[in-house]
Design brief:
Low-confidence stretches: 1-6
Mean pLDDT: 92
Shape: globular
Number of helices: 7
Number of strands: 0
Order of helices and strands: HHHHHHH
Helix content: over 70%
Length: 191
């Protein structure tokens, strides 16, 4: 599998746009289903006094559209746009989070896209692993501001960060890499 972008990573074809829309639609549905998982896991974790971990455990699946779009399309901005399209799809399907999905999609998309940008959009495999770290840092910083994490004790903050990173690494890193490998074997994409 190639790690360098072929051609211009700035130029988009109609095929790229259509595929990005399909990624957004598919992950919009997956994200909407994750709403139900989030509610159930929150109830279960809350029953044993661990509700604070719910956001961290479940964030990984919600971060998958961006790195998948970036790896498959190898275009600047594909991750951000893919994540925003997925968040829009989730919202339009009736997500319990409503329009705040768009803001979450923006933050998550920027976090993921940053990992690929750090490589200058030249090394897509390294970009994937960096995106798990940058996605964790950006979304965690957002939670510090918006979700009141800044009021938590340092020990709890470290635990939340580590669990969030593990979830994002597993789903938006390892699982996305496996999906890309399967698609490469199918020869649907020249990767």
């Amino acid at each position: 599998m190639e790690t360098q972008a072929t051609g211009s990573s700035w130029r988009w074809s109609l095929r790229d746009v259509i595929f990005l829309a399909l990624v957004g639609i598919a992950f919009g549905l997956i994200y909407w289903l994750m709403d139900w998982v989030y509610q159930l896991s929150g109830a279960l974790l809350g029953a044993v006094g661990l509700k604070a971990l719910n956001d961290e455990v479940t964030l990984g699946p919600w971060m998958m559209a961006a790195p998948l779009a970036s790896l498959l399309l190898r275009r600047v901005g594909a991750g951000l746009i893919g994540e925003l399209l997925a968040a829009t799809g989730e919202m339009l399907l009736g997500s319990s989070f409503g329009a705040s999905n768009l803001l979450s999609g923006l933050v998550q998309g920027v976090g993921s896209e940053l990992g690929f940008a750090l490589t200058g959009y030249r090394n897509w495999q390294l970009g994937l692993w960096l995106s798990t770290l940058t996605g964790t840092v950006v979304t965690f910083a957002w939670s510090l501001i918006v979700a009141g994490y800044s009021h938590y004790q340092p020990g709890l903050l470290v635990l939340l960060f580590v669990v969030r990173f593990a979830s994002i690494f597993l789903f938006a890193g390892v699982l996305v890499k496996a999906i890309v490998a399967l698609l490469a074997k199918s020869q649907l994409f020249k990767l």
